[in-house]
Amino acid sequence: MGLQGRKIAITGAGRGLGAALAIIAADHGMVPLLLGRTPGTLTATTQIIEGRTGRRPEVIACDLAHLASVAEAADHIAARHGNLDILVNSGSQWAGGAFEALTDEKIAAIIDSTVTGTMALTRRLLPVLRARPHADLHTVVSMSGLPYARMRGSSAAFVAAKAAQSGFVQALTEELIGTSVRVTSVYPGLIEDVLPTEAAWDEERGANDMLSDRNVVEAILYILKQPSNVAIRSLVIERARTEFLG
């Protein structure tokens, strides 16, 4: 399935992997909708896309940790973008360190953004996706959500949130089999944040190097452009000399 002209909503599009995905999606002729909670970072992504493609993507405020914000964003998309083809759940809040060092508020923000907010946005946009002849629901989970992977610096709250997100994706895959919505996911290991505007994006990496956002973005686009009869349900992406399994 080609990528040209497909409309893609991306959460967490203001920084890191979400921003990189939005930029490269636009380079491929897709129509990105940028969702995020920080106006300044979203503006920066918008300016990069406009400078590279001449097209200015729409920015939609969406704080996944606050359900009212999620509802407002979803209602806007449903009303204005009934031709949405793809939802990529990329946004979540991360925290490392000891569990007892986290505040209750931080724990809630991690869980709310990664689990509750993601599920709420997905639920609200499912009718839009199901109305399309072919649609994709893609979630960026994390190796932190896999039962056999070590924490490697992530907090217990983040690991728990990603495990819940992984369970949600698996359950939704089963529920939506036979519909027009294809459910897929990636489970990246540790990623170095690199934007397509940086020289490091094009640098060749050796076996000892970390994954970069480019590795994950290319994997996501590979999954999304599969023909409609093919579903790559989940893909674990880790560097050859892994940190997570040793």
UniProtKB/TrEMBL annotation:
InterPro entries, per the entry: NAD(P)-bd_dom_sf, SDR_fam
Gene Ontology molecular function terms on file: oxidoreductase activity
The protein's name: Short-chain dehydrogenase
Similarity remark: Belongs to the short-chain dehydrogenases/reductases (SDR) family.
Annotated SUPFAM superfamilies: NAD(P)-binding Rossmann-fold domains
Pfam families: adh_short
Keyword terms of this UniProt record: Oxidoreductase
Annotated GO CC locations: membrane
Domain of life assignment: Bacteria
Keyword set includes Oxidoreductase: yes
